[in-house]
Amino acid sequence: MAQHPASATAPTDLPAPVSAELAGTVSSVKSPKEIVKDFLSQVRSGLYPEKAGAYMADTVLAHQINSENPVTVRRTPANYTAHVREFLTLFGRFEFEITELLAEDDKVYARWIQKGIHQSAIDNYEPTGLPLIEFTSAVYRVEKEKIVEYWIQSDRQGMDEQLKKNAVLASGK
Pfam families, from UniProt (predicted)? Predict the structure, then answer.
């Protein structure tokens, strides 16, 4: 009668079991791309501005790129939360769509479209209640799972043209 190899030893070419503690640590590490995507989807979208601290370092260098006057602003999670809330005041509960997200090493390029309604004064243009669309792109640098720096550009000319056009439409001229 043949014996079954029930008591045979396990093959030695299988990987060693991973402890639950190590497995939890490995799976919880997020890539820079995941961090930026979550930040944009949760915070910049206006859904949960108060969660900025979960994604941003204590101080973030925000390079605002424009031809006539590039400037670097130091952002904290608290003032970024206020910044997003200002967008909510200006545009109402806006639509936010990430249209591009590319990553290389610690940098992530993002492009998005924000669609809202002009609800508060912007650059001396009184609110019109008419739609406004903003196109923006940014490169974020992530270190230790936190955004530490970004370079941002918005289509300011396009926004200005919309504000002018909407002011004329709202005035009935």
Answer: SnoaL
pLDDT at 67: 87
CA distance 169 to 171: 5
Structure confidence by residue, pLDDT tens digits, 23-49: 555 568 999 999 999 999 999 999 999
pLDDT on residue 15: 53
- Encode 39-63 in three state secondary structure: HHHHHHCCCCHHHHHHCEEEEEEEE
Tell me which residue has tokens 């792109």.
Answer: 137
* Helix/strand/coil for 12: coil
How far, in Å, CA of 105 to CA of 33, rounded? 9
- For residue 134, with 0-12 CB atoms within 10 Å meaning exposed, 13-18 middle and 19 or more buried, which class applies? buried
Phi–psi pair at 163, nearest 5 degrees = -60, -45
Whether the full predicted model's pTM is greater than 0.85, yes or no, is no
Give the tens place of pLDDT for each residue, 87-120: 999 999 999 999 999 999 999 999 999 999 999 9
Which residue segments constitute the domains of the chain, with CATH numbers given? 32-171 (3.10.450.50)
- Give the integer Cα–Cα distance in Å for 150 and 110: 10
